[in-house]
Amino acid sequence: MCIRDRYQRRVHGIQDINRMLSITFKQLSCRSSNIFGRMFSSIKVPLPNLEVYKLDKNMFPTVAETNREELINYYKQMTLQRRIEITCDEIYKMKEVRGFCHLMDGQEGVSVGIEAGITKQDHLITAYRCHGYLIGRGDTPERLIAEMMGRLTGCSKGKGGSMHMTLLKNRFYGGNGIVGAQVPIGTGIAFGIKYDGKPEVCVSLYGDGAANQGQIAEAANMAKLWNLPVIYICENNLYAMGTCVARSSANTKFYTRLDPIPGVKIDGQNIFAVRETMKKAREWCISGKGPMCLEILTYRYHGHSMSDAGLSYRTRAVSYTHLRAHETSLHLVCRLLLEKKKKRMSK
After folding, report:
1. What are the tens digits of pLDDT across the range 321-342?
2. Distance in angstroms between the alpha carbons of the first and the last residue of the chain
3. Radius of gyration (Cα) for the chain, nearest Å?
4. Cα 309–chain centre separation
5. CA torsion, points 116, 117, 122, 123, in degrees to nearest 10?
6. pLDDT of 11-36, one tens digit each?
7. Rounded Cα–Cα distance for residues 45 and 48 (Å)
8. Nearest-CA neighbor of 133 among 103, 111, 158?
9. Bridge partners, 204 (sequence order)
10. DSSP characters over 175-238
11. 307 pLDDT more than 90
């Protein structure tokens, strides 16, 4: 196939994906208006238990409040991120994408929950499983898919691919391909925030596999010495690159590993637990108390990357058992909406 034909295929592929995503939004809007009807009062959602380190457990709420508009917004955001990841899976298998590709379907509650707990004035930097965070910071599916395909219209002008997506105007710094390397950069961003005296924080994310990197300990040490406004978040999806955390880490309590920085461990499959904990962590940092470490327990549906089937270190039976035992944030939000609708109709 000549270069011109391949170019045409990629353009048509982007147009097909755009049409699919626009149909998804129309379906969601119709369901939202037809099924759920008028506005209803606030809903109180009990939060799962959490574990703390060098913190008062009572500083964290046990109940979260939400409402119809908020729930539908969360549902739309998480559904969009899920559909984008499934689409990326498909176009990768069609050989329309080159290089590496790390998908985060199953972890939507983490990315949407973090954004719900901070502001657009705050800063965010993460590793290479970054698609959901890019969308959460305000970029579009079109630019994300274009970047995957190496197009000039992509968020990094087609030069970064799946692993290096950025949106600097909205304070999203990637998408970083070197394991753990984003943590020192995030610490430097936090230094700049404190230097300028701004009421902002930097969220610096890393995975359970990167938790053993020495540069994370060095960065955290500097952050605590200077009491920088940085929230370190370990996304613990249990298997890192392909090894169970119990086999790779002597201390699996990642929220304690940045001692003397205080930490908290929460359920990442509950979007409200993520949101409320992020709000408290942000308040902690802005008040001048220094950094905080969060361990967010989550689970990815795909393997580590598209070249990893995810079956050599966890069987299908293990994955299915985990999915049956744990309700995802997407399912939680949908259940709350349907329960409220049922109660309203029964009156």
Report:
1. 666 667 889 999 999 999 877 7
2. 64
3. 20
4. 21
5. -80
6. 555 555 556 555 555 555 555 444 44
7. 10
8. 111
9. 125, 232
10. ---STTTHHHHHHHHHHHHHHHT-S--EEEEEETTGGG-HHHHHHHHHHHHHT--EEEEEEE-S
11. no
In Å, what is the CA distance from 86 to each residue of 72, 81, 227? 21, 9, 40
Residue 251 C-alpha from the chain's centroid: 24
CB-based burial of residue 94 (10 Å sphere; 0-12 exposed, 13-18 middle, 19+ buried)? Answer: exposed
pTM of the full structure: 0.88
Angle between helices 68-93 and 3-36 (to 10 degrees): 160
In the chain, alpha helices (H): 3-36, 68-93, 108-117, 131-136, 141-148, 182-196, 214-226, 245-248, 271-286, 316-325, 329-346
**What are the strands of the beta sheet with 123-125, ordered from one edge?**
51-53, 263-267, 292-297, 230-236, 202-207, 123-125
Residue 201's Cβ-count burial label (10 Å; 0-12, 13-18, 19+) is buried
Distance CA 171, CA 4 (A): 36
Q: Which amino acid, 137?
A: R
